[in-house]
Amino acid sequence: MDRADERTLCGEWTVHHVTAHLASFVDVGLPAFFLNMAKHRFDYDRAADTMARREAERPMPELIASLRDKAEKKSAIPIFPGEMTTTDVVVHTQDVRRGLDLGGAPEAELVETALVFLTTDKKAAAVVGKGKYDGLRFESTDSEWSHGEGQLVSGTSESLMMAMAGRPVFDELSGDGATTLQQRFAASTP
What crossing angle do the helices spanning 82-99 and 15-27 adopt, rounded to 10°? Predict the structure, then answer.
């Protein structure tokens, strides 16, 4: 059964859009990326949406073949660290799995890479937004990972990662800071 047109947890994107977005990381070069960013006044979300929709004009088998052929490539855009690409892939894989109610969990090591990137790399703020995690302490209930100081936000590593990427999984979290985190993402959603 073809499920490419089904919705994911990633806003209005279908499986096809998510696949196109991921393929854009290995297929679209730096000049095209910057031109697209400039057209959208350096709003990453709008630029990524436009690029994903453009890339989604390609058939799914072509996008999948491109991802497989270039699986070892960190990114066509050298300013993106490998950890950013890993985070994008892990989060979007869960967008699809959760959106389509498919089983499977990401490897713990990949989730921890994403959590560290989201909380420590300045480039994460360009994607997530500045200040989303200020005054919050994140604690994983299924690993030793934790970060920050302030109101507690706890949950599984995967749930923390998904919530920190703005996905609607806040009901899987506990602690005084869970509501604060949810409100911060709600306030920044157009």
Answer: 170
Structure tokens belonging to residue 58: 């390609």
CB 27 within 8 A of CB 101: no
153 Cβ neighbours under 8 A, 6+ residues apart = 136, 137, 138, 139, 160, 163, 173, 174, 175, 177, 178, 180, 181
Q: Please, which residues bridge with residue 139 across strands? A: 146, 154
Local structure of 139: helix, strand or coil: strand
Rounded to two decimals, the pTM is: 0.90
Q: Give average pLDDT by consecutive 10-residue segment, the chain, 190 residues.
A: 88 94 84 89 87 94 92 70 87 95 93 96 84 96 97 98 95 97 82
